[in-house]
Design goal:
Elements: H1 9-12, H2 19-24, E1 44-49, H3 55-66, E2 72-76, H4 96-108, H5 121-132, H6 140-151, H7 163-182, H8 185-200, H9 204-210, H10 223-236, H11 238-259, E3 274-278, H12 285-297, E4 305-311, E5 322-325, E6 346-350, H13 356-363, H14 371-379, H15 383-395, H16 403-408, E7 410-411, E8 420-421, H17 422-430, H18 436-442, H19 448-458, H20 465-477, H21 491-503, H22 509-521, H23 532-541, H24 546-555, H25 561-572, H26 594-598, H27 614-630, H28 639-655, H29 660-675
Parallel strand pairs: 1-4, 1-6, 2-3, 3-4, 5-6
Antiparallel strand pairs: 7-8
Helix pairs in contact: 4-11, 5-6, 5-8, 5-10, 5-11, 6-7, 7-8, 8-10, 10-11, 11-12, 13-14, 17-21, 18-21, 19-22, 21-22, 22-23, 23-25, 24-27, 25-27, 27-28, 28-29
């Protein structure tokens, strides 16, 4: 029943039921019950992954799927409302956790099918006590505004409609009187709150709620004293505040438990209430998560289904969490917590990238048939990237033949808003905004040392080696892969950052400086040639093809075949954004000469250096440009260039009997991978050490000479 998502059926499916329906006990988009997988203690489900993998989209879909059928709330912990208190609210009487509880309760209170509004007398009383700690110099109107919003949590919407407004006036009057010397401020507000509960409600449930704080530590069986202690602990900050916040979370869950205890038919509720917490790694998220998990570990039960989105893998926040892959929870979660480890109450489910088939469904039927596969290769299955580039193609069908053009095209959001280049919209969502400029430069680096060289050349003086290391660690914590040989391990994010580096200056001066810096870095103090491939990679990024051709030509007879193929792949992975002239100078034209070179159309104008094998030189030149073009994630694969790549590798296999099998295998694997939207990999061979084994399989298919 998931209407806008692909590849997430393990969470949403109805027959057989996916993870969330089994935890909530309700079919998505229907008011029909399902058998609970965890009828007793249930897991706190946490969806993990890097930016752009669809955690927020899943949570939004869950809200739509269950809204109106069971109480549901969605809170984004990264929202600005949790960054700090309102202008008039003192910091000692406000916290992100308390604000989140108010926002969550307001959403959960809404009526659903078969049942009316839920009231939150316990939470309401606690939030009033917390707010009262900041009313020392407040005017009566501000107190009334703050109190009325909190007291509406106890508004049933029936015969007692309007009671919250009258109640707010009573509390405000009591507080103003206390402020003028007729009584203690906090206790006056709390006394008014408890009196109003007693006066306004006669039923046992609300009377029970009004005295719930009698069990607060050191309250001595007095609810008013318990609330005064709660307020004091909250104002004290630190661990005292965490203790008070934990009690507020417990109050919310106790109110929900009470709401589900009704036996009257009109109060019959199906399933469990659902609380969705996005970006749980920030703001109020860790506090909410810790409070729920610790109470459950201590045997304080609740029946609330929590589903959260967490950036990264959560190893620091939830070290003892039970981990599952998405496919592994499609039918059963097999979740059993460790009684001694509170964080084991969390079930961490990693969201994987989308598959090529998922991408095809997202893109639909494009004018360019190769577009879905090319999008999947570029994005690595990142749902955000696929969706936004598909939107760019829909808005600019004339650009669908080039992913580079789709990235630089202005995309207008579905909702009203200004148009902006697609690559900038993606970077806004995929990398930390406070480090975008630094990452734009460091994306060209390969390791810590090369990143430090770039930082020294292009970043402010106060951004040193420690900052470089901290930034790389942050990327890993946020879920981006750590890949040897690349400072930014995710190829899609790295491509976007390099595109921004290239376009940041009208004359591309920053781009040239970055690559010249790395060329110098991999030349200085290195008498051996072990770093040659790095120098050649960055020279190629500036359009200087000659050194790369010479190195590959001269090393072909002597370097082991597998190492030579890896060197070719690495050098040819150099980014290419604009055409370059014959001397390697960048210009802003739209032409891409790589296909012409790969197909041999420029051979006649190419001067072969003296004293070298001219046939081998031209073949390596064509091969380099073919691999450079076919592995470029911004270019749709060219079948003609693929055929030429196959031919050139076949001919090279004839020149290296010792590496014949590997070269011939590459001639099959690499073009096929490029046309299918996959990166080329090492050719497989049964015996990698026996490169002298030519293999019978390729003998009949090798064609003639150039």
């Amino acid at each position: 029943m998931h209407r806008r998502l692909h590849g997430r059926g393990a969470l949403f499916d109805v027959e057989p039921a996916g993870l969330v329906p089994r935890v909530v006990g309700l079919r998505p988009y229907q008011h029909r019950a399902l058998t609970l997988e965890h009828p007793g203690e249930l897991p706190f489900v946490v969806l993990t992954g890097a930016r752009g993998l669809g955690k927020s989209a899943v949570l939004g879909e869950l809200r739509d799927a269950y809204q109106g059928h069971t109480p549901v709330a969605l809170v984004d912990c990264a929202d600005a409302q949790f960054a700090g208190p309102p202008p008039e609210r003192p910091a000692e009487s406000w916290s992100p956790v308390a604000q989140a509880l108010l926002v969550v309760a307001e959403q959960l209170a809404e009526p659903v099918t078969g049942a009316g509004r839920i009231t939150f007398p316990r939470l309401m009383s606690g939030l009033v006590a917390v707010a009262a700690g900041g009313w020392g110099d407040a005017d009566s109107e501000r107190i009334r505004r703050e109190v009325e919003r909190i007291l509406l949590l106890n508004e049933s919407g029936s015969w007692i409609s309007g009671f919250a407004g009258r109640w707010a006036g009573k509390v405000a009057a009591k507080v103003v009187a206390a402020a003028t010397g007729t009584g203690p401020l906090v206790s006056g507000a709390i006394e008014a709150t408890l009196e109003s509960v007693a006066e306004g409600f006669a039923n046992r449930r609300h009377q029970k709620a009004s005295v719930w704080y009698r069990t607060y530590p050191n309250a001595g069986g007095h609810a008013q004293r318990g609330l005064i202690l709660l307020s004091g602990h909250f104002r004290a900050g630190g661990t005292s505040r965490e203790h008070a916040e934990r009690y507020l979370v417990r109050a919310l869950l106790a109110d929900l438990t009470e709401a589900y205890a009704g036996v009257l038919p009109r109060m019959q509720r199906l399933g469990r209430p659902l609380v969705l917490v996005d970006n749980v790694q920030t703001g109020p998220g860790p506090g909410l998560l810790d409070a729920v998990l610790r109470d459950r570990a201590e045997g304080i039960a609740d029946q609330v289904a929590f589903v959260a989105g967490l950036r990264g893998d959560g190893r620091e926040l939830l070290r003892g969490g039970i981990r599952r892959e998405l496919a592994g929870v499609a039918r059963r979660s097999e979740w059993t917590p460790d009684p001694a480890v509170p964080s084991s109450r969390a079930l961490l489910v990693a969201l994987p990238p989308l598959t090529p088939d998922d991408t095809l469904h997202l893109v639909g039927a494009p004018a360019t048939p190769q577009l879905p596969h090319a999008l999947h290769r570029l994005t690595g299955g990142n749902p955000l990237g696929i969706a936004l580039l598909a939107e760019s193609a829909a808005q600019h069908p004339e650009r669908a033949g080039s992913l580079g053009d789709l990235l630089t095209a202005d995309v207008r959001p579905v909702e009203d808003g200004p148009a902006a280049p697609a690559y900038l919209r993606l970077l806004d969502r995929l990398v930390p905004a406070d480090r975008l400029d630094e990452l734009t430069v460091l994306a060209a680096a390969h390791d810590h040392d090369s990143a430090c060289a770039l930082a020294a050349a292009l970043l402010p003086d106060d951004f040193g080696p420690a900052d470089v290391r901290a930034l790389q660690n942050r990327l890993t914590q946020e879920g981006l892969p750590a890949v040897p040989g690349q400072f930014v391990g995710d190829p899609f994010v790295r491509t976007l950052l390099l595109l921004r580096l290239h376009l940041r200056d009208a004359d591309h001066s920053g781009w040239r400086t970055a690559h010249e810096t790395l060329i110098e870095h991999y030349t200085r103090d290195r008498p051996d040639d072990g770093q040659a491939r790095f120098r050649l990679h960055h020279q190629l990024a500036l359009g200087r093809t000659g050194p790369a051709v010479a190195h590959l030509r001269d090393s072909f007879p002597v370097l082991d075949t597998r190492g030579w193929l890896r060197t070719l792949r690495f050098i040819a992975s150099a980014p290419y954004f604009h055409a370059h002239d014959a001397e390697g100078r960048d210009f802003t034209g739209q032409g891409d000469r790589r296909a012409a070179v790969a197909l041999g159309r420029t051979d006649a104008q190419q001067r072969v250096p003296d004293g070298v094998d001219g046939v081998l030189h031209l073949r390596v030149r064509r091969l380099l440009h073919a691999v450079w073009l076919l592995t470029d994630p911004l270019v749709l694969p060219d079948p003609k260039v693929g055929d030429r790549l196959r031919f050139e590798l076949e001919q090279l296999s004839n020149l290296r009997p010792a590496g014949n099998a590997l070269l011939w295998r590459a001639s099959r694997d690499w073009p096929a991978a490029a046309l299918a939207g996959r990166p080329p990999t090492d050719p497989e061979h049964d015996d990698e050490s026996a490169e002298g084994d030519e293999g019978d399989e390729g003998d009949d298919e090798r064609s003639g000479v150039a």
